[in-house]
Amino acid sequence: MLPPEWLIDKRDEIASTNSELMQRARAGDTRPTLLVAKHQTAGRGRLGRQWHDQAGDSLMFSLGLPLNPLNWSGLSLAVGLSIANSLDPEHRLQLGLKWPNDLWLGPLSQARKLGGILIETAVLAGVAQASRYVVVGVGINIHAPQAADLRMPAVGWAEVQAGASTERVLQALLLPLVAHIQRFEREGFAPLQAAYAQRDLLRGEALVLSNGLQGVGAGVDAQGVLQLDTATGRVGVASDEVSVRLEATA
């Protein structure tokens, strides 16, 4: 398990694991922490979207730790890549990554969402601004949610791996994920770029951005910035500026 300096906090119910760790960090509690919840009453995804769950149907946890990387860009991609490699190490299950923070189970034409990542940071008082307390929130469906307002079809990991449970999935991915985050802190995203390309679901696909710009996905650069080939040339798309969706699901 995690080193002894880590706080492990498991809850039956909480509003949001990410929100809880962010509140603790702002109050001065910046211990490395794993917070796991069986049910979130106010779970959040990227851009404020709601995370749907029923108790026991999803693995939901947040890792909080001080971090001082060379460059923050690409952290969500590094996290997604670590999870995908832990769950599908031999690439047999078509588990891919949809930039910047989703895990999808393919093939792409029939892709269903398995999970998502939400990263938030708090500046630590009294230290260099490059050092922050980062909260890495992860949600993975063990059984697919049945909510009527899902933005895309969902899949549960139990559909592809017999005997899957929240505990087994957490055990499979936790230590590699912490190691991956620590490697990202030392080396940045660039050493992971080639491995990410092998799971990149948007490369070569017709895409449309939330601002209406259209083009073809051309992978990500060494900082994890999405590259889009448009009619007027290649442009980079940063995760905090736009959302990206396949034209077929726009």
What topology does this entry show?
Blueprint: E1 7-14, H1 17-26, E2 33-40, E3 58-67, H2 75-87, E4 95-98, E5 102-105, E6 112-123, E7 132-141, H3 166-187, H4 193-197, E8 206-209, E9 214-220, E10 226-230, E11 233-237, E12 244-246
Parallel strand pairs: 1-2
Antiparallel strand pairs: 2-3, 3-7, 4-5, 5-6, 6-7, 8-9, 8-12, 9-10, 10-11
Helix pairs in contact: 2-3
What series of H and E elements makes up the topology? EHEEHEEEEHHEEEEE
- The number of distinct helices, counting runs of at least 4 residues, comes to 4
Give me the Rg, rounded.
18 Å
How does CATH name the architecture of the largest domain?
2-Layer Sandwich
The largest β sheet comes out as:
7 strands, mixed
The strands making up the biggest β-sheet line up spatially as 1-2-3-7-6-5-4
- Average predicted confidence as pLDDT: 88
Helical amount: 10-25%
Q: So what's the overall shape?
A: globular
Number of strands: 12
How would you describe this protein?
- This protein has 250 residues and is an alpha+beta fold.
- The chain folds into two domains: 7-200, Bira Bifunctional Protein, Domain 2 (BirA Bifunctional Protein, domain 2, 2-Layer Sandwich), CATH 3.30.930; 202-250, SH3 type barrels.
- Helices cover 20% and strands 32% of the residues.
- The protein has helices at residues 17-26, 75-87, 166-187, 193-197, and strands at 7-14, 33-40, 58-67, 95-98, 102-105, 112-123, 132-141, 206-209, 214-220, 226-230, 233-237, 244-246.
- The strands form two sheets. It has a seven-stranded mixed β-sheet, with helices on both faces. Strands 11-10-9-8-12 form a five-stranded antiparallel β-sheet.
- Strand 1, helix 1 and strand 2 (33-40) form a beta-alpha-beta unit.
- The longest helix has 22 residues, at 166-187.
